[in-house]
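# step 3/5: fold
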Amino acid sequence: MKDFKSEGVLAEIRVDLETIKGDLDGDGADEIAVKIACYPTEGKVLLDQAFLVFTGHTGTPTFMGAVNARFQQQTSYNRVGIVDKLQISPSTITSDELVFRPDDAECCPTGRAVATWVYTSGALSFMNVRECGEDDCS
């Protein structure tokens, strides 16, 4: 985990050194998704988390897009979910989100959602998101 801080900034970005790999553009070579997280400088509650997707076919990393949480339910603090896991396959990324339900504490989402992203014509785009039931998040 690498932390980035700036003087006078109210939040810090942390880059997780673990990566998710998969062939997004269908060329037989894996792309890499790197997890980033945003925390308040004086606290431990995760504010946001996303994955940045890169290709490195030319030997130089090239940014393809960002996968962030998309499901939002009305809560007293109006938070979107947190991207928890990612799966990369040709032309598609599926992200599992931790979802804040109306009665959840700001620290602790209890719901789940699944979002789908598509890669076409050189662009990564959000397609849809659905909340999961108690036992169904496939």
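# step 4/5: annotate
The chain has one domain: 2-131.
# step 5/5: archive (pending)
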